[in-house]
Inverse folding.
């Protein structure tokens, strides 16, 4: 798995960024998409949201269905390659497009090449804000304690670790507590959590216990799948910990209900 | 969303799930796993922290193994030549059965009654314990953990700590039943002492010793064992015959290459720099030697390795130096332990190897029961791309039609819809309110189709409209005044 | 077809048509050992002997060490070791000429190492500072079992025979045929097989004591 080359030499002024909202944010938590929009615009980007977007194809790819994954990969590449950058609030989706599209399209070299080139302009949201746009949130405040979970794909495929912390550091009043085993998998693993629920449960139970031991009021992260998995376990266990996507906190949208809180 | 198994996979799905259930229901197992793997993880981290050049060493280790893999024929022939020149006899075995047969036949030719064994995962792989027992030989396992496994009649559950699933109370009971002069106090020291006494004369009274090899040194024809207890040397010096069984991927060009890999192996396995005993065995006893076997046999075993060699990227699995770091850091192994994997090798490396050794139809669950989180690859001392290999098995399983029908239909439908944005939006517009119907106060505790999730967790209820529906309706866009200001 | 032919045939088929010359393969292998300093740990400050002793006596290796001025002092050191532990003055002494030639007054010597031998006294060919290891070669004057049967393993090591790195041992023996056994001994025998608890003296020696002469 490749670690992304983070810094682009010079981003064009007001780059044209396409937001890939991701199917989970689209369906399950739109506020993450709106948070991403706000952050990218504040950072000085011109943001478009291609309306034809759906799914990056990761579920098919991880199930061994390379052919279906390739179908969706081609769609994605064609839809997003006209832009300077494509940015998504998810390390696992960008890991898919940046690292694995060339594998999914291995049988189709011209498309694989197009995917490879687009991959170089594809970024997870927080790493884009820090590494490319050199952005920090200004005038954001949240008086709370939070702990941060590093989602595996973002961490290991894209090298995302310092960037979320650098961004959250700029939120006045927000205290970041260390999470024991912050880089240990939460047990979501995409379809793994529903194909092998008992094992997934055992893994997320340990993660939830670690979150509670941190003493933090909030759990933050960069990937909705992981966050929903952990939030669901914490809630079932009766924990008061509230869960947000880090983008929501950074965009000043943490006054809104956390994951699972009634709307 | 419960997946119905396809016909070929039905039997294995049931047995894997049953093994998983049993493992997850066993609190003593969980304690044992945490102790072993947690310790190994901490020790490895300390060792890596104390070795600033570790990443560079790891890269070099990978290149050394890749070099050997790329020139395997050359090194096999060089090793054979030099081993024979040193007085060893070299045998070749294409399959597990053939390897076990050769060993049993050598024991028969030696008119052996008692055979001592030094721990070898390859020995397990070729079914040597069973073959020796079936041949009526007295088989004495000398590694403490393998001795415990033998007394308990079960199988190794970790490649470095085979009996890690056993508690001290269980070991105590086993020793009391089997040892001639068992321990008096209920301390671990006393138990180890009991084993030391029990096995001492077995070493010296054996006819044949069988060991594995961590490395095969091509330019000298020597084999290398890496152990902690002293049993490898106590086993292999007294008897008339010493037999080594080793996979063909164990080759390294020379001693310095072995040292480079040893620096990675031991740190990755136990956090030490070297094990207590690193021994190179070359040929039978020399004229004048005070001890050593009269005959030294090496059995080179294929058993699927040439099949891996022919497949890119599966051939990277031949880099494996059997350190166990991958399983020590695997969230799935740490919940299940080794027996749930059902094969010779557990954990991530086992999930890659078992389909080669036992066939994919019997073992497809192993590659799927994985979150692809990548920690295994991160800690592998020779940079094996384990998640890529596991996904490769998923791909093969899909192509071979071993995946459950419901999954095939579900993914096919998903792709069909996801390739048609209007249909996708329509689907979402219908599904979201439907899901919300099952919610109570923001959470879904139960919903048809979500059973696997909600059995253990709550599911956060979605909102009425998707992001794209709201965005298309104008939400989140910059107001015209904002646009003008830019 | 023999298994050998079948296996080599499959290896050949899997490796593709291009076959490298043996000299090319050897050159590649040699190149993989280049720049050895960049891929090994640091030795730490101090002399080679100090580095060796530091490693040897570290908790992980768990051996004991002492220094004597010359080899002639070895028998006295052995005598003192036995006395301090209340052990009878009987040792299995390695039948090595220089060792035998020392003044072993007051100690009963024997040749054969018994299965329940209390103390075996030997000399090591080399020490390796990187790991705190001792190197033994099997031979006419060096039974392997002397290093594995006894409870107490007392080893004479000349300071001049301490090498810095593992590779230095390979270099020191390059071109010479390897004996039947080369034993790199790094500390006392041990096991963590029962509940992860470290116990010393699993099958091999419980106590390893190294006496370093000179340096």
């Amino acid at each position: 798995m490749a670690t992304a080359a983070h810094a682009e030499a010079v981003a064009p002024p007001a780059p044209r960024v396409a937001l890939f909202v991701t199917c989970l944010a689209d369906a399950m938590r739109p506020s993450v998409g709106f948070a991403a929009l706000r952050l990218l615009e504040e950072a000085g980007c011109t943001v478009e949201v291609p309306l034809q977007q759906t799914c990056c194809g990761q579920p098919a790819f991880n199930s061994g269905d390379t052919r279906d994954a390739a179908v969706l990969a081609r769609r994605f590449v064609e839809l997003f390659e006209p832009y300077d950058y494509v940015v998504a609030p998810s390390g696992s989706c960008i890991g898919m497009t940046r690292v694995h599209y060339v594998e999914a399209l291995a049988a189709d070299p011209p498309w694989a090449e197009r995917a490879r080139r687009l991959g170089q302009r594809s970024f997870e949201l927080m790493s884009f804000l820090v590494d490319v746009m050199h952005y920090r949130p200004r005038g954001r405040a949240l008086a709370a304690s939070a702990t941060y979970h590093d989602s595996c794909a973002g961490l290991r495929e894209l090298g995302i670790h310092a960037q979320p912390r650098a961004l959250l550091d700029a939120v006045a009043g927000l205290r970041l507590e260390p999470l024991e085993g912050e880089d240990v998998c939460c047990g979501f693993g995409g379809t793994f959590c529903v194909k092998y629920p008992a094992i997934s449960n055992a893994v997320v139970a340990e993660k939830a216990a670690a979150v509670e031991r941190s003493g933090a009021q909030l759990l933050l992260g960069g990937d909705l799948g992981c966050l929903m998995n952990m939030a669901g376990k914490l809630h079932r266990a009766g924990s008061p910990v509230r869960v947000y996507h880090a983008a929501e906190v950074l965009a000043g949208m943490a006054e809104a209900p956390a994951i699972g809180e009634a709307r | 969303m419960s997946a119905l198994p396809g016909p070929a996979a039905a039997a294995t799905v049931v047995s894997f799930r049953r093994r998983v259930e049993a493992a997850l229901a066993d609190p003593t197992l969980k304690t044992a796993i945490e102790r072993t793997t947690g310790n190994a993880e901490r020790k490895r981290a300390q060792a890596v922290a104390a070795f600033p050049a570790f990443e560079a060493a790891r890269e070099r280790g990978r290149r050394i193994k890749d070099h050997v893999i790329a020139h395997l024929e050359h090194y096999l022939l060089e090793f054979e030549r030099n081993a024979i020149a040193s007085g060893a006899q070299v045998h070749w075995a294409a399959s597990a059965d053939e390897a076990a047969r050769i060993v049993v036949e050598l024991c028969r030719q030696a008119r052996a009654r008692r055979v001592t064994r030094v721990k070898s995962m390859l020995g397990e792989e070729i079914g040597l314990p069973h073959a020796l027992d079936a041949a009526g030989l007295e088989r004495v396992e000398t590694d403490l953990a393998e001795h415990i496994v033998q007394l308990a009649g079960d199988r190794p559950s970790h490649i470095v700590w085979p009996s890690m699933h056993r508690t001290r109370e269980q070991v105590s009971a086993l020793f009391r039943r089997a040892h001639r002069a068992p321990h008096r106090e209920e301390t671990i020291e006393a138990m180890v002492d009991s084993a030391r006494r029990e096995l001492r004369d077995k070493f010296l009274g054996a006819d044949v010793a069988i060991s594995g090899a961590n490395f095969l040194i091509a330019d000298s024809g020597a084999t290398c064992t890496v152990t902690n207890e002293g049993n490898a040397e106590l086993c292999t010096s007294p008897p008339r015959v010493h037999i080594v069984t080793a996979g063909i991927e164990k080759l390294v060009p020379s001693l310095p290459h072995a040292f480079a890999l040893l620096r990675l192996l031991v740190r990755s396995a136990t956090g030490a720099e070297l094990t207590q005993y690193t021994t190179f065995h070359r040929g039978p006893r020399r004229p004048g030697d005070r001890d050593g076997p009269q005959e030294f046999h090496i059995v080179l075993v294929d058993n699927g390795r040439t099949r891996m060699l022919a497949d890119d990227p599966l051939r990277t699995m031949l880099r494996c130096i059997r350190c166990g770091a991958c399983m020590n850091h695997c969230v799935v192994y740490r919940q299940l332990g080794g027996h749930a994997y059902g094969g010779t090798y557990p954990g991530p490396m086992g999930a890659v190897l078992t389909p080669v050794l036992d066939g994919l139809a019997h073992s497809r669950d192993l590659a799927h029961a994985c979150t692809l989180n990548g920690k295994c690859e991160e800690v592998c001392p020779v940079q094996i791309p384990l998640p890529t290999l596991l996904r490769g098995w998923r791909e093969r399983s899909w192509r071979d039609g071993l995946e459950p029908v419901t999954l095939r239909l579900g993914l096919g439908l998903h792709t069909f819809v996801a390739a048609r944005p209007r249909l996708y939006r329509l689907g979402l517009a219908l599904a979201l309110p439907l899901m919300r119907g099952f919610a109570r106060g923001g959470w879904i505790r139960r919903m048809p189709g979500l059973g696997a999730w909600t059995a253990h967790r709550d599911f956060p209820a979605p909102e009425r409209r998707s992001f794209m529906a709201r965005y298309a309706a104008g939400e989140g866009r910059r107001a015209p005044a904002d646009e003008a200001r830019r | 077809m023999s298994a050998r032919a079948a296996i080599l045939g499959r290896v050949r088929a899997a490796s593709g048509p291009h076959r490298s010359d043996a000299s090319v393969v050897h050159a590649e292998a040699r190149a993989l050992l280049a720049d050895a300093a960049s891929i090994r740990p640091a030795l730490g400050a101090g002399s080679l002997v100090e580095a060796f002793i530091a490693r040897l006596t570290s908790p992980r290796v768990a051996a004991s060490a002492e220094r004597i001025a010359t080899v002639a002092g070895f028998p006295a050191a052995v005598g003192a070791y036995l006395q301090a532990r209340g052990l009878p003055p009987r040792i299995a002494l390695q039948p090595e000429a220089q060792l035998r030639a020392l003044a072993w007054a007051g100690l009963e010597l024997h040749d054969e190492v018994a299965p329940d031998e209390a103390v075996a006294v030997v000399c090591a060919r080399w020490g390796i500072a990187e790991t705190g290891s001792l190197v033994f070669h099997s031979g006419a004057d060096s039974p392997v079992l002397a290093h594995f049967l006894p409870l107490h393993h007392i080893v004479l090591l000349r300071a001049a025979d301490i090498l810095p790195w593992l590779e230095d041992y390979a270099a020191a023996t390059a071109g010479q045929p390897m004996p039947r056994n080369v034993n790199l001994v790094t500390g006392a025998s041990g096991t963590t097989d029962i509940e992860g608890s470290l116990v010393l003296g699993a099958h091999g020696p419980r106590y390893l004591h190294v006496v370093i002469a000179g340096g």
In short: Chain A has 13 helices and eight strands. Chain A has two domains: 16-131, 139-250. The CA atoms of residues 137 and 223 of chain A lie 20 Å apart.
